[in-house]
Amino acid sequence: MRAIAVVLMLCISPFIAAAQKVVLFADDAYPPYSFSEQGQARGLYAQILRKAFSRMPDYEVRIEPKPWKRALKALERGEVMAIYPPYWHPQTRPFMWPYSVALFEETVAVHCHFQRSPSGPGARWPEAFQGLRISQTSGYDQGGEHYKHLLAGGHLTEVYARSTELNVLMMAKGRSDCFLNDRLSTRLELKRLQNSVQDDTVLAELMQIRDTATVSQQAVYVGFNQQFAARYPYWRDFMEQLNDRLLEMHGTGEIYQMAKDYVQQQTQCPQCSYLLRQP
After folding, report:
1. Using N-to-C axis directions, what is the helix angle for 164-172 and 183-196, rounded to 10°?
2. How many CB atoms lie within 10 A of CB 273?
3. Exposed, middle or buried by CB within 10 Å (0-12, 13-18, 19+), for 10?
4. pLDDT, tens digit, for every residue of 58-69?
């Protein structure tokens, strides 16, 4: 009987399909959500996606961290099947379609140096920020249509740096007045720099940076490019399986709990979980 079982296994095993290998690119400079550590993708979104991928046995997924502008260009050229974590911008990024189920929802805020910020409490975005230099991370598209209108009219100036850290330091060094970014990411990076910068002059300027206004709520996704479907014939099945896993994880509250645990345990900021938007 054992010999028969062995023969049956040998006959069946060649027909068991190997898992399809898939590569995703991730933002390498957006802590605590998505960043690179010793060449590996780290952050909350990598944790969420790896948990989802572990429940997709048909696929073997490798996440490669890249500078965000490079990841966007690679998706546009079809050099990678999907990237994360874009916001929803189908008009300004027509090559990116479709999007997955949302991974998470961030709160976009503007932080400003106290001496160069709009005067008075409750500064209204973006009207109260006219005449200021607003920084963003390279490749990001935030702020809203009114902000873009003021920018096009020369009422605001926009500057860029490739990471949250560099954008915060630009404010401290007087190269920008405000930084437009996710609130949690900015506050945690500001806290880290305040605890690590050795230059007393820069440290004093970092202490002057304030959370000035809420701009919007923005969901983040995995973005695909269906124009290269022939290159990745499995992309739709992959996306549908990923969507099913993410919906399950949202439905049970698993993703929100992962976010709370991540902030409390890995950023050494137990009090910062209140910055997470509760579903």
Report:
1. 60
2. 16
3. exposed
4. 999 999 999 999
d(CA 34, CA 168): 17
With b meaning 16 or more CB within 10 Å and e meaning fewer, what string describes 213-239?
A: bebeebbbbbbbbeebeeebeebeebb
Do residues 29 and 85 touch, judged by C-beta distance below 8 A? no
Please give the Cα distance from 216 to 105 (Å, whole number): 10
Do the bridges between strand 223-224 and strand 82-84 make them parallel or antiparallel, or are there none, so unpaired? antiparallel
What is the mean pLDDT of the segment spanning 42-54?
97
* Residue at token pair 């993703």: 255
**Element spanning 137, H or E:** strand 133-137
Q: How is residue 270 annotated by DSSP?
A: G
Are 163 and 136 spatial neighbours (Cβ–Cβ below 8 Å)?
A: no
Show the tokens assigned to 159.
């500057």
